[in-house]
UniProtKB/TrEMBL annotation:
Keyword terms of this UniProt record: FAD, Flavoprotein
Cross-referenced InterPro entries: FAD-bd_oxidored_4_C, FAD-bd_PCMH, FAD-bd_PCMH-like_sf, FAD-bd_PCMH_sub1, FAD-bd_PCMH_sub2, FAD-linked_Oxase-like_C, FAD-oxidored/transferase_4, Oxid_FAD_bind_N
PANTHER family: BLL6224 PROTEIN, D-2-HYDROXYGLUTARATE DEHYDROGENASE, MITOCHONDRIAL
Presence of keyword Flavoprotein: yes
Pfam family, one: FAD_binding_4
Entry's family note: Belongs to the FAD-binding oxidoreductase/transferase type 4 family.
This protein's name: FAD-binding oxidoreductase
Domain annotation FAD-binding PCMH-type: ranges: 41-224
């Protein structure tokens, strides 16, 4: 057996150090956390361990390391790729380490434009906490009510404001984490510059818990929004969407924070399945974008003038402007509930690909054609972060088919095909969701051997016993391959 189960002695040590709130082996306590967000994978763990402080977290890792016990870190359990589900090599024998009790905002500094938040802080709570200090944390995504700081860091999450502020990787100023041997990286100083060799925090960002346990982070803040302008725009083509984006940037510069693409069939799914939604435009356009621009009181006028001009030139077809915060939220709801609407409609093979931004309109067209030729009847649908060159190029089951049977038989082949197309186009099979357990096979198959060797060398150096999140991101060790 590659990974031992924790002994009674080990569990007793953990219980003694963490107290009753910090450790449970009761199946009823574990059950909600054993199935992934997309409800496609269920694992098993020996115990749910919930440290409340850095010291407790370090104790947990050190104690596990002493016996070679696997650790699966978990935040809000909202991974899109099964990254926090204790399935795979150490199934039933791992400690599922929940960071949800480490939920303090340790400090908010307007002077440093920085917040120090523990790993278990939920993104929506972080937004609220810094708003109280007149600041903004500029990363948002649909799962903000569940996703935690630690998970966002470990997946290098993106979302709907990457266009201006970048993904998590560009928002982390400092990190505190427990290395796989139980020692601690104390790196929370809010430094804008630090040239002491390797940037260890960047190594942990996007590592999916395979190199250490993130316990807290210092995150960059920006000024609170004075005014935002939100518009929904109907377009004839995805190429027009790209032309519109660059045109808006020419006129509004960095004020353009979000530029989200929604195809006609995506909007139709939302209107069909999500209550309290209505079409923003009188006509159904083949493509739509949701634009948010942020600035002073004049930003709405500037966006309006730019869009009227785009309509006059024929780049845009029509536009609806939000004239209140409620209307802005209603437009955002159309975009943010797309995934949910798609899920309610039936099973789809879901992807998160990126290619160079300028190549995305052609990629979406050629990849859709290639998928339909190879898998007749399937219905590709691409939506999302066009401004970042990242779309969720999902493939729905053929209309009228038994979608569960289709998914079981076809989804894996469809995904490998789509991941291959993105890679061939000079892009990536994972732009913002990570690799986790769902995409590990394709990642290993499609990754340049030299890149994979470097990753494995880093893993071997920092976690030689392989206790951190086995089965996620990296190829299985030989000892863990299914026999
Ligand atoms: C989104 O952009 O809506 C999210 O990444 C979720 C998803 O892909 O389903
Ligand atoms: Zn997304």
């Amino acid at each position: 057996m590659a990974y031992p189960a924790p002994s009674a002695r080990c569990l007793a040590d953990l219980a003694e150090r963490l107290g009753p709130a910090g450790l449970t082996t009761d199946p009823a306590d574990l059950a909600p956390w054993l199935t992934d967000w997309r409800r496609r994978l269920t694992g098993a763990a020996a115990a749910l361990v919930s440290p409340a402080t850095l010291e407790e977290a370090a104790f947990v890792v050190a104690r596990a390391a002493a016996d070679g016990i696997a650790i699966v870190p978990q935040g809000g359990n909202s991974s899109m790729v099964g990254g926090a589900t204790p399935a795979g090599p150490a199934e039933g024998r791992a400690l599922l380490v929940s960071m949800r009790r480490m939920r303090a905002i340790r400090s908010v500094s307007a002077g440093d434009n920085a917040v120090v938040a523990e790993a278990g802080v939920v993104l929506a709570d972080l937004h609220a906490a810094v708003a109280g200090a007149g600041r903004r944390f500029p990363l948002s995504l649909a799962a903000k009510g569940n996703a935690t700081v630690g998970g966002l860091i470990s997946t290098n999450a993106g979302g709907t404001q990457v266009l201006r502020f970048g993904p998590m990787r560009s928002l982390v100023l400092g990190l505190e984490a427990v290395w796989p041997d139980g020692s601690v990286l104390h790196g929370l100083a809010p430094l804008r510059k630090d040239n002491r060799g390797y940037d260890l925090k960047q190594l942990l960002i996007g590592a999916e818990g395979t190199l250490g346990l993130v316990t807290a982070a210092t995150l960059r803040l920006v000024p609170a929004i004075e005014s935002r302008a939100v518009a929904w725009i109907g377009l004839r083509s995805a190429h027009d969407a790209l032309t519109l984006l660059r045109g808006l940037e020419d006129r509004l510069g960095e004020a353009v924070e979000s530029f989200e693409l929604v195809p006609a069939e995506g909007l139709a799914l939302v209107l069909r399945h999500i209550p309290d939604t209505r079409a923003p435009l009188g006509e159904a356009w083949p493509w739509n974008v949701l634009v948010e621009a942020v600035g002073d009181g004049a930003v709405a006028d500037r966006l309006q003038v730019a869009l009227i001009d785009a309509i006059a030139r024929g780049t845009a077809g029509d536009a609806a402007f939000a004239s209140s915060e409620a209307q802005a939220d209603a437009l955002w709801k159309l975009r943010e509930s797309l995934s949910e609407a798609e899920a309610r409609d039936g099973m789809a093979a879901k992807h998160d690909v990126a290619v160079p931004v300028a190549a995305m309109p052609d990629f979406m067209a050629s990849a859709s054609q290639a998928v339909v030729e190879r898998f007749p009847g399937t219905r590709p649908i691409a939506f999302g972060h066009l401004g970042d060159g990242n779309v969720h190029f999902n493939v729905r089951a053929p209309a009228g088919s038994d979608d569960r049977a289709w998914f079981a038989a076809q989804a894996s082949a469809v995904s490998s095909f789509v991941h291959g197309l993105a890679t061939e186009a000079g892009g990536t099979m994972s732009a913002e969701h990570g690799i986790g357990r769902f995409k590990r096979g394709d990642f290993v198959a499609l990754t340049d051997p030299a890149r994979m060797r470097a990753m494995l060398a880093i893993k071997a150096a920092l976690d030689p016993a392989g206790i951190m999140n086995p089965g996620a991101l990296l190829p299985l060790a030989e000892k863990d391959e299914p026999q």
